[in-house]
Amino acid sequence: MQNVAPYATAFQAESQHFYGGDFVRQQPVHQVDLAACTNDRFIPPRDADCWEQAQFLIKEHGVVILCAPPGTGRRSTALRLLTTVGSLPLTLVDLEPEWSKPDATKLPAATGHGYILDLSGMPQQPGPRFGQGLINYGIDGVKKSCYLVVLTTPDEWTNEWSEETRHITVKHSSPNAKPLVRQELRQMGAEDRVSWLDQDAYNDIWRSNPPAQEARRLARIVYEAKENDNTVVEEFQGWNTHINKLLTPTRQGPGEPELVSTRATVWAGALINGGRKRSVLHAADALLEKLEFGRKPLDILADATSSHRLKAAALRPHGDRAFHELDKHDLAPAILRHLWDEFPTQRDLLRSWAVSVVAQQAVPEDDARIALSALLELSKEVHDTSIIDSVAKEVTGRRLPLAVEALTSAALDPTLGKYVRGRLYRWMLGKPSPAMVDLVTQICGGELAVRQPSIAMTRLARAAVHAPFPSSAMVDAFRRLTQINAAEVAKALETWLTEEPAKRHALVAFLSLAATDEGTRLLLSMTDDAAGRQRFVRAWQQLLQDDESQSAADEQLGRWGVAAESGLLPSALLVDLMADVYEPKIYRSGLQRFFAQDRDFQDSFWGEVLERVIIRTHEREKASS
């Protein structure tokens, strides 16, 4: 196993971030992930033949494709393959593509490295030569001890390009559940509970041999159980017996709600478990409306009373709030999983309903937060990433701060993070709504900027393409990024401004930086060399020449002038730089605005700029003649 310090150093030496177009970001594999792949802990896939085939393929071809649904332990198997493939330890790296479509030529291939590329949920299909590109990558990689494991699903790895990779594709299987649960309990320090697994109550579970994700969930349930009774198995099986009773009550007498009304209340109570009773009933009514179940005032008054509806759904009141049975651990999430699993053809409707509850102003924000948290957890458990997209589109327009809070958390989540970070990038392609632009901008200027500033920067650039001049959200985001990692901001801006003419995102970023003290200092520091000075001057000239940005640029330059006169900015340096900006005659007329505003123009900062421009022009004309 790798030594931590050399590993980190090697990764830093190889890691590069590019801001000029499609690229594949490299992320270090955390030591906690590697721990699951050690000799004393790793449980191999149950299909021994496929496991042996995968080991052979990566050694011979440099690339192997593990094809299986999420939650089957694909990543742990990939790490095990990479930690055992060579005679010397590899530096292991997760690849996080930021590309318009998959392209094997963009993949890094450093000597002595092992890469994991997860292509599950590809937003765009690869070109027809992508498969051959992976094969060529592997051929070159074997020569320099560089290896790649691709993770994908059977539903997605079916196309022209996948046919070319058939000989390096392996159908991955989960490890057997019982030894995996046993191993997990030992790692948790619960050796005394391993014997529980041999009792007859668990036999049905071992016969069904659940996938790795479910086996780990069972281990957590056993670990957290107060005692070894039937509730452990019942919870693992999703409290199915209890839920079926809730959804099919035995008595429907006079004054009791109809069956569909009771079910709607059960599901609403699971979505907002612990929320206000009024919010739960509002959510239930919203679902009934989605189902076109009559909810006109007459229908509502003819239905059971609110207290009867809550009672029929077995929701327990605690003051003004309602809970599903608290003695059944994680019952509410189990009800939502049951709903998604038992009615798969209605997922679009259910997703639309649940997200609309979060977005509705009639639901107080703290209750909406409960629902949103439940939805994000559901997204992880049932691998329904469409929930993320629905939250972004529907909640953002009505509850932007809540959407920012939830999706920031999701972007940093070990399970959802990679998908959400990818969506932040993809949402800004095409023509996103102003609300979506604000969403991505605020996420990139928040905790994501603190934890992963370079990732925040690339997505902020995409958002800046659609941002107005000026944008307060952009200003706040770039201020935060500059405070956290000024060097990274400078690197990105230098790349963006190297293009001639500079594109919109570069100019939005430049003007946003110019609007803050931190950003202004950064911009001025980048003019120390001739190339940096040229980029600085050209950016201002583009902003002043474009009708859309001219007014905002003039306003900002006016603030700079005031700051220079008051000593807050270096006047001599700014005069010198602004003289470069305004010297060409096409821009010089812009100084008339300052002349019109200041009676003492000749003695002002801008008067000094004009004087410097005239002197330079005269000297240049004299030299040329």
**First-residue to last-residue Cα separation:** 73 Å
Average of per-residue pLDDT values: 89
Shape: globular
Helix share, percent: 55-70%
> Biggest sheet, strands in spatial order?
1-3-4-5-2-6
Radius of gyration: 30 Å
The share of residues in extended strands comes to 5-15%
Structural class: alpha/beta
Ranges with pLDDT <50 over ≥5 residues? 1-17
Number of helices: 34
Tell me the total number of β-strands. Answer: 8
Report on the biggest sheet.
6 strands, mixed
Describe the protein in words:
Helix 20 crosses helix 21, helix 22 runs parallel beside helix 25 and helix 25 packs across helix 27. It contains 34 helices and 8 strands. The radius of gyration is 30 Å and the shape is globular. The longest helix has 20 residues. Helix content is 59%, strand content 6%. The chain has a 6-stranded mixed beta sheet. Strands 7-8 form a two-stranded antiparallel ribbon. The N terminus is likely disordered. The chain is an alpha/beta fold and 625 residues long. Strand 7 and strand 8 form a beta hairpin.
Q: Care to give the gist of this entry?
A:
The protein is of the alpha/beta class and 625 residues long. The protein is built from 34 helices and eight strands.
Q: Any key phrases for this structure?
A:
alpha/beta; 6-stranded mixed β-sheet; globular; two-stranded antiparallel sheet; 625 residues; 8 strands
List the helices and strands and how they pair.
Layout: H1 4-14, E1 23-28, H2 31-35, H3 48-61, E2 63-67, H4 74-84, E3 91-98, E4 113-118, H5 130-143, E5 147-152, H6 160-163, E6 169-171, H7 177-187, H8 203-208, H9 212-224, H10 230-236, H11 240-247, H12 259-271, H13 277-290, H14 297-302, H15 306-312, E7 316-318, E8 321-323, H16 331-342, H17 347-359, H18 365-382, H19 386-395, H20 400-411, H21 417-426, H22 434-444, H23 447-451, H24 453-464, H25 472-484, H26 486-498, H27 504-514, H28 517-525, H29 530-545, H30 547-565, H31 571-582, H32 585-588, H33 592-597, H34 605-624
Parallel strand pairs: 2-5, 2-6, 3-4, 4-5
Antiparallel strand pairs: 1-3, 7-8
Helix pairs in contact: 3-5, 7-9, 9-10, 12-13, 12-16, 13-17, 16-18, 17-18, 17-19, 18-19, 19-20, 20-21, 20-22, 22-24, 22-25, 24-25, 24-27, 25-26, 25-27, 25-28, 27-28, 27-29, 29-30, 29-31, 31-34
